[in-house]
Amino acid sequence: MTEDLPQEIKTDRLLLRRWRESDGPLFAQMNADPKVMECFPSLLTREESDESMRRICEHFDEHGFGLWAVEVPGTAEFIGYVGLKYPTWQAWFTPCVEVGWRIDSRYWGNGYAPEAAKASLEFAFHAAGLNEIYSFTVPHNLRSRRVMEKIGMTHLQEHDFAHPILAPDHPLSRHVLYRISRSDFARS
Ligand SMILES: CC(C)(COP(=O)(O)OP(=O)(O)OC[C@H]1O[C@@H](n2cnc3c(N)ncnc32)[C@H](O)[C@@H]1OP(=O)(O)O)[C@@H](O)C(=O)NCCC(=O)NCCS
């Protein structure tokens, strides 16, 4: 029952919470930052960013979890998102739940993404009862791959894939795939 799931998650330094209207302008600022968007096909306009936020909120309504807004209590009300998502496209490993992240570049390098991602995995395997979680990115997104490694995910070496929403010859088409199971997580 999605309504029984916790609404927010606290970690040592972070609050993972549902989104507020006031997150919109800060999210749009991040989505217009070329550093943050380096591994995505384009920067987002304010309208596209608002639409993305709307879809994230809809995912929470449908599944009871999603890409949580991340707050550093007492320091910053919104530094980006980290959390869980059902991809909307098809590949051999879908339907599945992915763990993903996007942090404002002013806050990079503090270990915030792995801290929030570990809490998201804890939620996935315990509160939500999921058995495995995937993550993927372009091969040269070394920051993101480092987060995947730090939270105990395994690179499925034989399973690089062409992202289905991009043309096969798009420079960002090729993706690396990582996975963690509930038992891997329990051992980590
Ligand atoms: C990926 C991202 C969420 C990481 O967030 P973060 O809170 O800064 O994460 P961390 O503090 O753990 O820092 C990332 C790690 O990558 C390492 N790193 C940074 N640049 C690197 C590089 N060029 N090569 C290899 N590793 C690198 C850092 O040293 C750090 O690892 P360490 O703690 O072992 O030293 C953040 O960079 C981001 O939002 N990037 C843009 C959006 C994005 O690409 N999202 C993922 C899409 S799949």
What does this entry look like structurally?
The two termini are 28 Å apart. This protein is an alpha+beta fold. Helix content is 31%, strand content 24%. The strands form two sheets. Strands 1-2-3-4-5 form a five-stranded antiparallel sheet, with helices on both faces. Strands 6, 7, 8 and 9 form a four-stranded antiparallel sheet that branches. Helix 1 crosses helix 2 (46-63). Bound molecules: coenzyme A (COA). Coenzyme A binds next to strand 5, helix 3 and helix 4.
Give me some keywords for this one.
single chain; 188 residues; alpha+beta; Aminopeptidase; 5-stranded antiparallel beta sheet; 4-stranded antiparallel beta sheet; 9 strands; 31% helix; 24% strand; binds coenzyme A
**Amino- and carboxy-terminal Cα gap:** 28 Å
Main pleated-sheet profile: 5 strands, antiparallel
CATH superfamily: Gcn5-related N-acetyltransferase (GNAT)
Give the tally of structural domains: 1
Named at the architecture level, the CATH assignment is: 3-Layer(aba) Sandwich
- Structural class, judged by helices and strands? alpha+beta
What topology, given as strand order, has the largest sheet? 1-2-3-4-5
Helix content: 25-40%
* Sequence stretches where pLDDT stays below 50 over 5 or more residues: none
* The top level CATH class name: Alpha Beta
Return the average pLDDT rounded to an integer: 97
Task: Write down the CATH topology.
Answer: Aminopeptidase
**Helical stretch tally:** 5
Q: Using the alpha-carbon principal axes, give the shape.
A: globular
Question: What is the rounded Rg?
Answer: 16 Å
